[in-house]
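Bench notes, afternoon.
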Amino acid sequence: MFSIIQAAGWPIWPLLLCSVVALALIIERLSSLRTARVAPPKLLDEVVSVTRAHLPGADVVNKLAENSILGAVLASGLRTVIADPRLTEPVLRASFESAGRVAVHRMERYMNTIGTIASAAPLLGLMGTVIGMIEIFGSQAPTGGSNPAMLAHGISIALYNTAFGLMIAIPSLIAYRYFRGRIEEYTLEMEQAAERLVPHLMRFSVPPVKKAP
């Protein structure tokens, strides 16, 4: 491996850095975007069951918020109802929308970096190819002869950097597309969960007192 890096020349180092960063971020996103950490399947049913008769205490709501990203969204609605029993439905929906934006931001963490690496890696490989071509042209002597060692080194730089750039870009692009699809699925699940919970929580809202004419 070290001999390949030597043959690829200095342009390989930015590509190696990109590969390490991309691998670390992909592993982190695979862990963070697991269903159990984002939207557990039975969580909404459990919340509806717990709040069927009365609103839960602060400790239960805090545990719900720490359970998962979906739990944090649902907990925001519960806190809004607990804080203001006279709230209206638009206020509750606005609370869910605000928490949903925060949830999407959490799920999209590092996505721009992965996408940037997927786009930049082929360009870095192309840069290595250009540098290799310069080495190849530099191996040609003015008298018509050539330096075989310099020629071979230029070819190695060109080919290795092109290959490394594609090897980094393709998995990064696949991971980016996969994570983007998962985030969209989770976002839709959260929207549906909030839509189902709104009428359930509005049962605890105290109607405003009407003034006598």
